[in-house]
């Protein structure tokens, strides 16, 4: 589990995905009086189905009967709402065998929970901000990660199957490669120990003639380097915890990540996209950076990223995901904000920056790790920039 090197406080990070949508729906339902465990369990499934329909989640096949499906994440979600002070403390099922004894148990919403439910029902940024504040207050590990990112990016090398095929001389070689990419005093000895531990845990039972596939090795090395990247910054976490924290930051719009930051090739980079504020009593708050405050800075960062990618004025169309990641990292904002500003540039805003911008369907391949850019609800994979008045040199249709 993660903790700042100087922070002895222990914490438990629940494996909760969609940390905005599920709490919001549960709070609204609880406020309406649908507050039995069974009500909450059914509601959890309905939210998951909605998210899948909206393309923002995936419902996995369960071997459990319908009457028991989603009992564990429902328990974890209620425990989190109790931790926030939004639900009165009450016993929760510790195992599926005890589910029947809790199905009709009621979970009473508190006055604080009702206030949060009002924000949840209204939707939008206010509830997201409130959820972020609750998580920061409730989880020292999450708070510590935000504080670390405020001081600088967190880097985790990501080897490809081709890298594995070429080889790096075993765990020591992989550790040296990763230490060079991470920089900042990352220790190869620590990295090698982490790599060996992960390889043994995943493949230790295999015989010498049963070599795992390169894809499987790459996945294990990626997990190992993510753990090592956290450890190098004084945060100690296992792979599942890191994945949960990454999801929280992205959903709450507090920090972002990408594998396409130019300064860190072959690595996933996390960076802060918020201001961390401190009240007089020491309470921390994360306030994301928005378009009104950062729009022009982001527009200039996009122009700089395009210039560095191909040379400004060349008229060459370049992959959106590359300049978007670079601009977001440089400006310290979310990629989703960069998408909005890029649309503004295409629509002719920021004319004083002297840029004419076009977006195209394109022919490049969008990596799985990068969301598509949409302009007027249509996916555009490539973008072209030229000085205003120069005209575009690419005659491909942008329709």
How would you summarize the topology of this molecule?
Blueprint: H1 21-31, H2 37-53, H3 71-84, H4 111-122, H5 125-138, H6 140-151, E1 154-157, H7 161-166, H8 170-182, H9 188-203, H10 214-232, H11 239-252, E2 255-258, E3 267-272, E4 274-278, E5 284-288, H12 291-310, E6 318-319, H13 320-331, H14 335-346, E7 355-360, E8 374-375, E9 378-379, E10 382-387
Antiparallel strand pairs: 1-3, 2-3, 4-5, 6-10, 7-10, 8-9
Helix pairs in contact: 1-2, 1-4, 2-3, 4-5, 5-6, 8-9, 9-10, 12-13, 12-14, 13-14
Defining traits:
14 helices, three-stranded antiparallel sheet, mainly alpha, 399 residues, 3 domains
Structural commentary:
With 399 residues, the chain is mainly α. It folds into 3 domains: 21-138, no CATH class; 142-285, no CATH class; 291-387. The chain has 14 helices and 10 strands. The strands form 4 sheets. The protein has a 3-stranded antiparallel β-sheet. A 3-stranded antiparallel β-sheet has the order 6-10-7. Strand 4 (274-278) and strand 5 (284-288) form a beta hairpin. Helix 4 (111-122) runs antiparallel to helix 5. 40% of the residues are buried. Residues 1-8 have low confidence and may be disordered.
């Amino acid at each position: 589990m993660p903790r700042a090197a100087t922070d002895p406080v222990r914490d438990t990070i629940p494996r909760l995905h969609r940390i905005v949508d599920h709490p919001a729906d549960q709070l609204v339902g609880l406020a309406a009086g649908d507050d039995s465990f069974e009500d909450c369990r059914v509601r959890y499934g309905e939210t998951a189905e909605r998210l899948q329909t909206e393309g923002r989640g995936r419902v996995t096949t369960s071997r459990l009967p319908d009457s028991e499906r989603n009992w564990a994440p429902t328990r974890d979600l209620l425990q989190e709402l109790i931790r926030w002070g939004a639900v009165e403390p009450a016993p929760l099922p510790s195992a599926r065998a005890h589910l029947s004894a809790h199905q009709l148990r009621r979970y009473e919403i508190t006055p604080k929970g009702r206030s949060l439910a009002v924000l949840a029902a209204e939707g939008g940024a206010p509830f997201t901000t409130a959820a972020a504040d609750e998580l920061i207050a409730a989880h020292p590990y999450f708070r510590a990660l935000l504080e670390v990112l405020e001081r600088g990016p967190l880097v985790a090398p990501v080897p490809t199957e081709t890298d594995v095929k070429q080889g790096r001389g075993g765990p020591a070689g992989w550790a040296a490669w990763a230490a060079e990419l991470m920089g900042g005093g990352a220790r190869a000895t620590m990295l090698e120990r982490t790599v060996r531990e992960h390889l043994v845990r995943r493949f230790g039972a295999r015989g010498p003639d049963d070599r795992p596939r390169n894809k499987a090795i790459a996945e294990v090395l990626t997990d190992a380097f993510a753990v090592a990247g956290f450890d190098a910054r004084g945060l100690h976490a296992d792979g599942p915890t890191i994945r949960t924290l990454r999801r929280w930051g992205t959903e709450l719009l507090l920090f972002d990540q990408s594998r396409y930051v130019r300064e860190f090739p072959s690595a996933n980079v996390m960076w802060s996209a918020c201001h961390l504020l401190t009240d007089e009593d020491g309470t921390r708050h994360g306030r994301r950076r928005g378009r009104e405050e950062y729009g022009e800075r982001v527009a200039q960062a996009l122009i700089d990223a395009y210039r560095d990618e191909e040379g400004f004025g060349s008229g060459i169309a370049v992959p959106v995901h590359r300049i978007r990641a670079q601009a977001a990292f440089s400006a310290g904002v979310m990629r989703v904000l960069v998408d909005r500003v890029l649309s503004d540039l295409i629509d002719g805003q920021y004319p004083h920056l002297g840029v004419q911008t076009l977006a195209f369907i394109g022919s490049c391949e969008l990596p799985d790790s990068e969301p598509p850019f949409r302009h007027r609800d249509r996916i555009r994979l490539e973008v072209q920039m030229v000085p205003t008045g120069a005209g575009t040199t690419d005659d491909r249709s942008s329709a």
